[in-house]
Design goal:
Radius of gyration: 17 Å
Distance between the termini: 19 Å
Order of helices and strands: HEEHEHEHE
Strand order of the largest sheet: 2-1-3-4-5
Strand content: 15-25%
Length: about 160
């Protein structure tokens, strides 16, 4: 018997973990996940966009528009920052971060400061926005590589049906 040939790549696996992490987000508009991986392909951190620990999801706004303090923006912690803060307590130098969306300027600052050397993203839908242009400038100047994930598959279906294991 030969080994299975239709297994997923490392990039597909880790992006899948980032996308699964995004399913924890309570944000009604945008769910983003991130996964940090070390040089040995071990997951060392994961996160999703949400409120800081101790801040109730029911007591803060989720609106995208309106007065600043009546929107989610001053309160939400992005997936990339959460993954960095949720890391297992190790140095993140030379690690890679997989994220559903290209990181904003604030997350890029944290990525650079933490020593992460590569960003792998799925979507860059906000690339024309100055926040993301600034992000690219900083990542380039700091020597942090970035690339769009190259997945050979379109989707992964998960099932909790034990008969499928």
């Amino acid at each position: 018997m030969k080994k299975r040939q239709d297994y997923i790549s490392w990039d597909e696996y880790f992006m899948g973990v980032a996308l699964l992490s995004a399913k924890r987000s309570k944000d009604p508009n945008t769910q983003v996940g991130a996964c940090i991986v070390n040089e040995k392909n071990k997951i060392v951190g994961a996160g999703y966009n949400g409120l800081p620990i101790g801040c109730s999801d029911d007591e803060f706004p989720w609106q995208k528009e309106g007065e600043y303090l009546n929107t989610k923006y001053p309160f939400i912690c992005h997936a990339e920052l959460n993954a960095i803060l949720n890391n297992i307590g190790m140095d993140l130098k030379c690690c890679k971060i997989y994220t559903a969306l290209f990181p904003c300027n604030e997350c890029s600052k944290a990525i650079i400061q933490s020593g992460i050397s590569e960003v792998i993203y799925l979507s860059d839908k906000y690339s024309g926005n100055d926040i993301f242009k600034a992000s690219r400038i900083m990542l380039d100047k700091a020597g942090v590589k970035y690339r769009k994930v190259e997945a050979m598959i379109k989707e992964i279906n998960l099932s909790f049906d034990i008969s499928k294991i």
